[in-house]
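Query structure, 186 tokens:
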């Protein structure tokens, strides 16, 4: 009788599947979280009390997106900058800028390249009013902003394009940016 009842071949046969899975997981661990960069722009439609004063303007965004491949939840930190001119006023305008943190939930099977998604987030936004020729005093104030919306993304390996619309609200300043953008990485 041998002191060890199993041969080396029997041990390898038993532990080979376990070692293979462990090796694959160890190799995939560093690549689990992926960071990408987003940039986009589009129209900003004022609504509510802000819509009574301002005309449609433009909005741009840029930021970073963090995601795990094949996992539907992603996170995006972004900066926003946009401008709306005012109705009937000579040169009056509102500039909106700030930052937001968003959660993005993609809907659908993991390997389908076209995915609808919902987005929600919060942050801080500055509303800067600049009078034109009227001679009124300019005003600027930072306040929290909240919002949510939906979009659709076309993901092709390390690049993607997206179109999204969100409702963002900061006190009495409500607007709907409709953004077309590009994602690189992540």
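Result returned for the query:
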């Amino acid at each position: 009788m041998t002191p060890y009842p199993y041969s080396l071949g029997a041990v390898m046969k038993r532990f080979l599947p376990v070692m293979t899975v462990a090796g694959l997981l160890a190799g995939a661990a560093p690549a689990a979280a992926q960071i990408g960069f987003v940039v986009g722009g589009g129209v900003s439609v004022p609504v509510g009390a802000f819509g009574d004063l301002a005309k449609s303007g433009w909005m741009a965004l840029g930021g970073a997106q963090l995601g795990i491949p094949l996992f539907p939840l992603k996170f995006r930190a972004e900066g926003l900058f946009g401008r709306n001119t005012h109705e009937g006023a000579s040169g009056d305008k509102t500039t909106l800028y700030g930052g937001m943190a968003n959660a993005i939930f993609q809907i659908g099977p993991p390997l389908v390249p076209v995915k609808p998604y919902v987005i929600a987030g919060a942050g801080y936004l500055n509303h800067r009013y600049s009078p034109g020729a009227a001679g009124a005093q300019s005003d600027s104030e930072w306040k929290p902003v909240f919002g949510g919306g939906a979009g659709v993304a076309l993901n092709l390996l390390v690049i993607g394009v997206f179109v999204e619309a969100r409702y963002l609200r900061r006190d009495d300043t409500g607007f709907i940016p409709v953004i077309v953008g590009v994602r690189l990485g992540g």
